[in-house]
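Weekly structure sync, notes
Attendees: PL (lead), two postdocs, one rotation student
Agenda item 3: pending single-chain targets
PL asked that the sequence for the first pending target be pasted directly into the notes so everyone works from the same version. It is reproduced below exactly as submitted, 268 residues in total.
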Amino acid sequence: MRTELWLDYSTRSLETAGISSARLDSLILLEDCLDKDRAHILAHPEMIISTTRLKKLNYRLKKRLKHEPMAYIRGYSEFYGRKFKINKHVLEPRPESEVMISMLKKLHLSENTVIADVGTGSGCLGITATLETRCTKIDLYDIDASALAVAKHNSVMHEVGLKAYKRNLLNNNVRPYDIVMANLPYVPNKYKINKAAKREPKLAIFGGADGLDIYRKLFEQVLNLSRKPSYILTESMPPQHSPLASIAKNSGYKLRITNQLIQVFEPV
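Predicted structure, written out during the meeting:
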């Protein structure tokens, strides 16, 4: 089969299944299976797909038709220009979360700055923070052992050697932190999510009736720390920003800045 015919077939099939990114997903599947970049594929619509590769393409297309996230099908996702292993135990990193790294880089950092990535999942935030800054004292925390296994793999793959700890947020933290990065579950329990998101771990998505229960626990724990972090970076939906600022205030923190989904808090 020629690439142009498969691309047309795949795009129409995915559109029928209600997938808005049908053509883009089809092109990505072609890139992966043919080991050719998008420009080459589009410039050579007559290129023949071998029987073996066609079988692999159709197998992956079948998964996508069931709304399986592309990152799970591919086995990895990109975050801040780097590849990270992804599987069913962790969320697919969202581009919106990259803003947290950009905001982190604007803070007062040094090689001695100690950072906690709480609710690390795949480890993409903590690992990226290490690679993008001079900070090497970064610890990864997650309540789920399967997620931590993915984070550890990514840490080794990117040669940063970060320590990962199974904890309920900062409960029994291993050391004091200057900065806490927390991309915690913040979707309200009754919020309607798309079919692909429904295939991701619910533990990493939903955060109670208003979506902020896990952040409440985090700030309660921070209140009881012997040494408070200088900054706490969070991610949530814009309508949650004001309630989250109130939660932070009850633990002695004020809002420093907001950028898209990301908020930075500092002690009052």
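Discussion points:
- The chain has a mean pLDDT of 96.
- The chain is about 40% helix and 15% strand.
Action: rotation student to compare against the earlier draft before next sync.
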